UniProtKB/TrEMBL annotation:
GO terms for biological process, alphabetical: 'de novo' IMP biosynthetic process
Domain of life (superkingdom): Bacteria
Protein name: N5-carboxyaminoimidazole ribonucleotide synthase
Pathway(s) it belongs to: Purine metabolism; IMP biosynthesis via de novo pathway; 5-amino-1-(5-phospho-D-ribosyl)imidazole-4-carboxylate from 5-amino-1-(5-phospho-D-ribosyl)imidazole (N5-CAIR route): step 1/2
Amino acid sequence: MSAPIIAVVGGGQLARMMQEAANALGIHLRVLVESTEASTAQVVPDSPVGQADDEKAVEELVTGAQVLTFEHEHVPNAFLETLPVPVRPAPAALVYAQNKLRMRQVMDKIGAPNPQWAEVASRGELADFASRVGLPLILKTPTGGYDGKGVLKIQDLAEAQDWLDRLEDGQTLLAEEAVPFDKELAVLLARRPSGEVRCWPVVQTIQENGVCSVVLAPAPDLSDQIDQQARELGERIATELDVTGVLAVEMFAVGDGADTKLYVNELAMRPHNSGHWTIEGSITSQFEQHLRAVLDLPLGDTAPVSDGAAMVNLLGSELEEPREAYPRALAEVPEAKVHYYGKGVRPGRKLGHVTVVGADASECARKARRVVDILQGKEK
């Protein structure tokens, strides 16, 4: 029996980490990478070079494959409908991770809790929305934004003028109220085509300049009621949208205790930064689960292996080669697990992440942060 082939679009660190799970399961990954130096190309032997919008490259990628999946959403959706293999998540679901306006519309349709929002294309439309919800506001480009890109917080309408001036005919922006959240949470789950769903513990995410910096698992001081509510919301979204594979639902939590209100922030239909802790912290990692799900295999147990876990992203470094700091970092925190993505160093870039598993998520985060500080050259 030959190994099943999973075709993946995107050569970043997510596909790189899928390869580890694929090795264990004896699955053949074929990944469309942006260049021979891409993070995934360094570890996946079958890595043809091409762009996600190159239809010929994608057609060649799926030849002989059992399924096509993604490590990012920036793919031409209509073209996916023409491919001769199952696409998971399907284009009809993926569009809600590709287009934030479409996502807000469908969240309203299924009764999921949205912030107040509006589609705007002019100063007048933005002013009308601001008169209803107040300032500050959040502006987003409907497509293409990630890790804080394509997001602008405005205190005054004049700050939006440059974005409005750059709109071409037919283009619009998404305007949202600035939710006064107390925490940012993420619900990570997986769903297979047959309908089975498995959910990991709800986590808290902490952002740095719009990029996820720290993940605490499980989310500290979260009531059982809100934990259940968040999981049920994630499962309802996955089922209503017919998502297959891993789904991350980023949420704002407003208030404390039983009075906490949840609002959907964004969706990602792939392994997600909020789930990297699952590699060491859960019986089944998000990467193994995604491969199982897209092949419609029984899903793995998502129970955590300890009472707490934390992941801290390595965002840039003052060192030309952060790995030169391994001796000190690993000696000081021997329980730390370092994942390095093989990327060139530049300010703010996701170079890797560090996970620590233990009895308390906050203490795990302190230890992981210590390792990251050393790898960033902040601890001389």
